[in-house]
Specification:
CATH class of the domain at 15-89: Mainly Alpha
Order of helices and strands: HHHHHHHHHH
Shape: flat
Largest sheet: none
CATH topology of the domain at 15-89: Protocatechuate 4,5-dioxygenase, Chain A
CATH architecture of the domain at 15-89: Orthogonal Bundle
Number of strands: 0
Mean pLDDT: 84
Low-confidence stretches: none
CATH superfamily of the domain at 15-89: Dioxygenase LigAB, LigA subunit
Length: 132
């Protein structure tokens, strides 16, 4: 039985909680395997074959192939583990995170240096509904 999650209605936000951790266990284990050079080499040589060695859903495997980091977070990926995929591709963390936003890497870095994303629009769904 799922616990009450008061954070469940924050638009555009996926909280990495115990349910997400269970859902993404195989995906996150795959990501951590990329810490070893020999595994990165095997992954680069044949992504699909390497992914098929892991207990992941087809949606997760396709998300890795597509480098759909937002989709992978939705399927239980932890951003810090997912960063191993981007690093395997030679991407910095800022570049990886920028692919998940409307900014390029430079724009994202500038936004963060200026204090982060504006708070305007960051509301719980029920707060917007009460304004209507």
């Amino acid at each position: 039985m799922a616990l009450d999650k008061p954070y469940g209605d924050v638009p555009g936000t996926t909280i990495f909680d115990a349910d997400q951790a269970r859902k993404g266990y195989g995906l996150n284990q795959f990501c951590m395997s990329l810490m070893k050079a020999e595994n990165r080499d095997r992954f680069r040589a044949d992504e699909r074959a390497y992914l098929d060695e892991w207990a992941m859903t087809e949606e997760q495997k396709q998300g890795v192939i597509d480098r759909d980091f937002n989709g992978l977070i939705a399927t239980g990926g932890n951003v810090y583990f997912l960063a191993k995929i981007g690093a395997t591709d030679g991407m910095s963390f800022v570049q990886i995170v920028a692919t998940m936003t409307e900014n390029d890497a430079e724009g994202h870095a500038a936004m963060m240096a200026a204090g982060g994303r504006p708070i305007d629009g960051n509301r719980y769904t029920h707060e917007w509904e009460s304004r209507a």
